[in-house]
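ok so dumb question maybe but i'm new to this and my supervisor (M.) told me to 'just get the structure for Aldo/keto reductase' and walked off. so i did the thing. is this what she meant?? sequence i used:
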Amino acid sequence: MVNRIDQTVTLNNGVEMPWFGLGVYKAKAGSEVENAIRDAIEIGYRHVDTAALYENEESVGEAIRSSGLSREDIFVTTKLWNTDQGYESTLQAFETSRKKLKFDYIDLYLIHWPGKDKFVDTWKAFEKLYRDGYIRAIGVSNFQVHHLETLLKHAEIRPTVNQVEYHPRLTQEPLKAFCESQQIQLEAWAPLMRGRLLDNDVILDIAKKYGKTPSQVILRWDLDTKVITIPKSVHRARIEENADIFDFQLNAEEISRIGQLNQNERTGPDPDEMVF
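this is what came out, is it supposed to look like this??
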């Protein structure tokens, strides 16, 4: 059972990654994202997820440096954007992200979307950066089974993480099973389905039983299905609420009931349709 906010899972390369973190998608650079991260760290978060696309890497780095904690205490993920895929352009884009963050290394670097035909070359650049010690773990985001199968045929280093849209309306069971079979850790973005599940009767019933909010039940379901989760908020009260999930655990029946809400419904793009 995951019963601490700083509890970690061991990735397939031995790196320890916190099960729970703060996402900063659409958090504005400057005081908004910096205050959110400082609040999160005060509450106990030790994992922050950003991306080149979010245009807030500089602020993420500043907030972590000013937190009073050492760099090694905070696990930081960033991601390569689609227009930078390809071997040489990936190396350049990574250096840009690293300089914006002002870090000597990144804990986890992800290919943001698979696209059509460049992700194998991109992965070769990821492997070089990993071997050179600039990244502690390399992974992917939004990869479907067939993307992973293609990548694994060419990869010398196996991805550690696959970050995908995952919530009770999109459980992606075949993908989850494949990742588990390949020792690739699944991570959820949009775990709360952008608020669309908070009035669901099944979720509300379970929330009432535990004296928790619907959001807390869904985030607990992530952890109880062995999926890393990174809910996004810039409001301290919500950041605190999201983190108050370590004093209860769902039983097998409740996990199943929530999983049965699946309708293969996305809030974001279908990776097979987002071709570039």
